[in-house]
Amino acid sequence: MFCRSQELERFNHLTERMSKSLMTLRRALAGEVGMSNELEELSRSIYNGTLPEMWRRFTPATLKSLGSWILYHIDRHAQYYTWVYEREPQVTHTYTSSTAY
After folding, report:
1. Is 99 part of any domain?
2. How many structural domains is the chain composed of?
3. Is 32:50 a contact under the CB 8 Å cutoff?
4. Beta carbons of 56 and 73 less than 8 angstroms apart
5. Which of 22, 26, 53, 58 is 20 to 30 A from residue 73's alpha carbon, by CA?
6. Is position 50 within any domain?
7. 34-85 tens-digit pLDDT
8. Residue-by-residue DSSP string for 24-81
9. What is the pLDDT of residue 25?
10. Does 37 reside within a domain?
11. What b/e sequence results for 20-33 when a residue is b if at least 16 CB atoms lie within 10 Å of its CB, and e otherwise?
């Protein structure tokens, strides 16, 4: 349970980071706030279809394109939603006997 809790916390942190950075980028593109180097990199990554570095820092290593990674992120969200609101994942225990040799 502890590992799932940590995994959910990391996922929520990443999702919040994505949301905040995209809202700030939208404001920067509208001229409401200044365009920082980090926002410029975010914009360039989205344009080029690559995973932005500011998000990559919070994810396991991947070579996926941005589109594939977003689909994976959506699937993980659905999985986590099921864990939290419907049912916990099934855990299979494998027992071995030390006398089986």
Report:
1. no
2. 1
3. no
4. no
5. 26
6. yes
7. 999 999 999 999 999 999 999 999 888 999 999 999 999 999 999 888 888 8
8. HHHHHHTTSS---HHHHHHHHHHHHT---HHHHTTS------HHHHHHHHHHHHHHHH
9. 98
10. yes
11. ebeebbeebeeeee
The number of C-alpha atoms within 13 Å of 13 and in the hemisphere containing its C-beta is 12
Which residue, chain included where needed, has tokens 């995209």? 22
Write down the pLDDT at residue 101.
Answer: 45
The predicted-structure confidence for 10-32, as pLDDT tens digits, reads as follows 999 999 999 999 999 999 999 99
Q: What is the pLDDT of residue 60?
A: 87
Q: What's the residue count for the chain?
A: 101
Q: Is residue 13 part of a domain?
A: yes
From residue 50, alpha-carbon distances to 25, 30, 76, 94, 95 in Å are 16, 23, 19, 40, 43
Note down the domain range covering 7. Answer: 2-85
